[in-house]
Design brief:
Layout: E1 8-17, E2 22-24, H1 25-29, H2 36-43, E3 47-49, H3 57-72, E4 79-83, H4 95-101, E5 108-112, H5 118-131, E6 137-145, E7 163-173, E8 185-188, E9 196-197, E10 217-218, H6 220-242, E11 251-254, H7 259-269, E12 276-277, H8 280-283, H9 290-300, E13 309-316, E14 320-327
Parallel strand pairs: 4-5, 4-6, 11-12, 11-13
Antiparallel strand pairs: 1-7, 2-3, 6-7, 8-14, 9-10, 13-14
Helix pairs in contact: 3-4, 6-7
Length: 344
């Protein structure tokens, strides 16, 4: 395999996992000032999965990673990149622990935190490792136990977020292959950090007398405006680089933040509504896990088929956003993310 930069990152395996506990809108309405209708009409979400006490991001990541390796037909990888905003500890990173639990101790393993754009950033990072010849196979995982960052009494954030993990195995290949990732378009706007932030708990403010500052705060209207504009702009950039017309896109897999965001971006781009891949009604916003979980669900139900032209775009706190493209690969086996046990 050449190491002159001509190597492409090719999707060779896919897996996802959602914790067993399902929280539907009626359960939230029983304790918050909200209703099933209010949540569904504003977000498109009817249920989400949530971790039980004692279940960590590493647990989610391990389960999804194991399924992706199984899908790829090999447990041999040279590196593991974990996209997460909810590591098990502030220090160290969670990726080495996940690698060890998967029997991969000794490989390169590190975390990437771009919040809801994390999986796209992690794909780009892994593609760089493959292009440089640092690795021949990379396990990329997006995992978040995002409900652990929420004020349980906040009717604004609690209905939106859920927990889960999704993963892909990338191998070195060539740009003409099915599954080869196209160009990446990555951006940030740190001047808008305050739009989505957990104010306390980091080096800037380790502790706060106000317990609410240890939970996520969100300025929803501004986030919606930025997300729809940035995802559309970034999507156009990668479509130009891929040489694809909008009407040539078979599927749009966007970060599952809000059903209205997905439909607004699709409309702005001129994409057909039936081409939008969405599982947010069943998962909620799972942050870095949302795109690989959408991949997995769409693979299982036949929405994604080998050869499909797929546009991928995400937006998250930071602010961060990014996009890429690929022709969907012919994956031999993808399991449903809805499992009875993590080991399944």
């Amino acid at each position: 395999m050449p190491t002159d930069g001509s190597r492409a990152a090719v999707v060779a395996g896919l897996g996802g996992w959602l914790p067993p506990r399902v929280v539907d809108n009626d359960e939230l309405a029983s304790r918050l000032d909200t209703s099933d209708e209010w949540i569904r009409t504003r977000t498109g979400i009817r249920q989400r999965h949530a971790v039980d006490p004692g279940t960590s991001t590493a647990d989610l990541a391990e389960a999804a990673g194991r399924r992706a390796l199984r899908s790829a037909g090999s447990d041999v990888v040279d590196a593991l990149v974990l996209a997460t905003a909810t590591p098990d500890h502030p220090c160290p990173a969670s990726a080495p622990r996940v690698a060890a639990r998967l029997g991969l101790s000794g490989i390169a393993a590190f975390d990437v935190n771009a919040v809801c754009t994390g999986f796209v950033y992690a794909l780009a990072t892994a593609a760089g490792l493959l292009a440089a010849g640092v690795a021949d196979r990379v396990l990329v995982i997006g995992a978040d136990a995002f409900t652990t960052l929420l004020d349980p009494d906040d009717r604004t954030t609690v209905p939106i977020f859920g927990d889960g993990a999704g993963a892909v195995v990338l191998r070195a290949g060539t740009a003409g292959e099915l599954g080869a990732l196209g160009s990446f378009d990555l951006h940030s706007a740190g001047e808008h950090t305050d739009l989505l932030v957990v104010p306390a708990g980091g080096a800037l403010r380790r502790r706060s007398a106000d317990p609410r500052e240890h939970f996520l705060t969100m300025q929803g209207t501004a986030v919606f405006r930025h997300a729809t504009a940035r995802m559309a702009e970034s999507s156009r950039a990668v479509l130009r680089r891929a040489g694809w017309r909008v009407d040539e896109v078979d599927r749009f897999v966007g970060h599952q933040a809000n059903a209205r965001i997905l439909s607004t971006v699709a409309k702005s781009l001129g994409l057909a509504p039936e081409g939008v891949v969405a599982n947010i009604d069943r998962t909620g916003n799972t942050s870095a896990a949302s795109i690989p979980l959408a991949f997995a669900d769409a693979c299982v139900d036949g929405t994604l088929r080998a050869g499909d032209r797929v546009l991928v775009s995400a937006f998250g706190a930071g602010l961060t956003w990014g996009s890429t493209t690929l022709r969907w690969p012919d994956l031999p086996k993808v399991e449903s993310p809805r499992a009875v046990t993590a080991a399944g």
